[in-house]
Q: What sequence folds into this?
């Protein structure tokens, strides 16, 4: 990879646009749709041949509080309680103004995507995500990010927005405190320069840049990298060079329930609905109710860096709404058995230990790890899957103001530079345990919407 540079603008550019967006993930496409709606001439450049990004790898679930869909489903919610949930999960480490902004603008974005662009969102109303005090995850029918990115790309195409693929932005033209444009590599090795009046960084974080992962989050270096390889950290590397502020670079979303060696995400509903994780010795090792992000570190610290998610057929029914879960079943990752003894055998676990572990789960009480269980016990047929811990995406990044403009280290906004999604500092605190489900796409769609709609001063 060529190191991203910051340079003085050339005398002539190959192309010129009003709003240039780097990256065609959820953030970039929402930003482009919003910029066009605001009357801007907009161009998106994307490194890949077809837009996918981490968005396509995700479950495509966007949290939003106070949407029309929630109201129709009889779910009472408010931006204030959403903001409180975000801060509680992140131990109060986030900038309160950013948390409030994201919580308040979340419902309008979902309403707009549904009503104006026809995205068929619905609320996940049959299970709870840890840390959310209301059911507020909104997803498309297949609950997959590939459906979300395809729907956003189709909306952009319908709106006549140009997306030029196979252009990797490598140089930022910055002078006099303003962005003048970028230079991007074409597949034939040539460099193309694009001038812009304003630039939106929607190129996500630095999970695909090994050096930055080692520098900022060494504790997850041994985990699987499960995000999009193309997210190599240009935004933070440029920020360093232009004096822009970055924060919480050690923050990330991990996941401790990735089927191994299949590499398929197993929904955390398998835990929230009453399942547990055991290690190779058939023993539980932590409070799974804390969340799936910190689960990555917990699982990686077990013998062999692996664990086994144990649940039952009732829970599998809930999990089956996720395409990934069905794929894991089709590939034989999920084992099912009528007895715990047989399940232990097929997972290679000590049967006595597994039976003791499941028998010791309290019914409607709290266990030694501090987890509170409901009244429904795991019942045959039982299910199990071998899992490991993974790094999904980074959560630190560029500091932005309430219009998504990038701030300098002195706290002054750069008038024509914006950031959103994984390029911006999110609301997940300083490390892995501050990630509340959905923080990733929340920052992508809300900051994308704000950055796109903002008018250059
Ligand atoms: C397995 C998995 C499951 C997840 N599930 C969820 C979920 O259910 N809910 C949730 O909220 N979040 C989830 N996330 C996180 C979520 O996917 C991300 O937070 C979100 O997609 C970020 O959107 P983005 O637009 O910032 O980045 P991306 O979708 O990654 O888009 C960035 C785009 O920029 C392009 N790009 C990068 N650098 C350059 C460059 N220099 N020049 C040109 N193009 C460039 C990339 O190719 C990419 O297409 C999940 C993540 C993973 C990996």
A:
């Amino acid at each position: 990879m060529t190191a991203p540079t910051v340079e003085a603008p050339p005398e002539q550019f190959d192309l010129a646009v009003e709003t240039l967006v780097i990256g065609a993930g959820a953030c970039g496409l929402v930003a482009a749709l919003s910029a066009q709606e605001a009357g801007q001439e907009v161009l998106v450049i994307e490194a890949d041949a077809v837009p996918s990004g981490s968005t396509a790898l995700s479950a495509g679930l966007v949290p939003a509080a106070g949407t029309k869909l929630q109201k129709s489903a009889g779910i009472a919610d408010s931006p204030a309680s959403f903001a409180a949930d975000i801060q509680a999960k992140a131990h109060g480490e986030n900038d309160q103004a950013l948390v409030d902004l994201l919580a308040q603008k979340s419902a309008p974005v979902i309403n707009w995507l549904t009503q104006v662009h026809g995205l068929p969102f619905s609320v996940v109303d049959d299970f709870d995500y840890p840390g959310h005090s209301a059911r507020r995850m909104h997803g498309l029918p297949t609950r997959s990010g590939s459906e979300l990115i395809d729907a956003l790309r189709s909306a952009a195409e319908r709106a006549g927005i140009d997306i030029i693929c196979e252009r990797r932005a490598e140089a930022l033209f910055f002078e006099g405190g303003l962005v003048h444009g970028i230079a991007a590599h074409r597949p034939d090795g040539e460099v193309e320069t694009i001038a812009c009046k304003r630039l939106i960084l929607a190129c996500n974080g630095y999970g695909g840049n090994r050096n930055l992962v080692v520098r900022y989050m060494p504790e997850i270096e041994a985990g699987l990298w499960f995000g999009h390889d193309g997210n190599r950290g240009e935004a933070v590397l440029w920020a360093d060079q232009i004096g822009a502020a970055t924060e919480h670079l050690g923050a990330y979303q991990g996941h401790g329930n990735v089927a191994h060696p299949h590499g398929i995400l197993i929904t955390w509903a398998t835990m929230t609905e009453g399942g547990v994780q055991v290690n190779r010795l058939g023993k539980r090792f932590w409070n799974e109710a804390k969340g799936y992000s910190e689960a990555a570190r917990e699982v990686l610290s077990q013998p062999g860096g692996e664990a086994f998610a144990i649940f039952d057929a009732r829970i599998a029914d809930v999990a089956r709404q996720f395409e990934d879960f069905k794929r894991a079943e089709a590939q034989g990752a999920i084992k099912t058995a009528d007895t715990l003894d047989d399940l232990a055998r097929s997972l290679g676990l000590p049967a006595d230990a597994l039976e003791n572990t499941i028998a010791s789960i309290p019914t409607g009480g709290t266990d030694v790890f501090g987890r509170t269980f409901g009244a429904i016990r795991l019942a045959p047929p039982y299910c199990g899957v071998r899992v490991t811990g993974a790094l999904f995406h980074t959560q630190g990044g560029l500091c932005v103001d309430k219009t998504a403009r990038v701030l300098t280290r002195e706290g002054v906004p750069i008038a024509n530079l914006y950031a959103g999604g994984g390029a911006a500092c999110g609301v997940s605190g300083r490390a892995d345990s501050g990630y509340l489900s959905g923080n990733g796409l929340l920052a992508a769609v809300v900051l994308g919407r704000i950055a796109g709609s903002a008018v250059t001063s």
Remarks:
- The CA atoms of residues 306 and 388 lie 5 Å apart.
- The chain has two domains: 5-248+395-453, 253-391.
- The chain has a mean pLDDT of 96.
- The two ends are 35 Å apart (CA to CA).
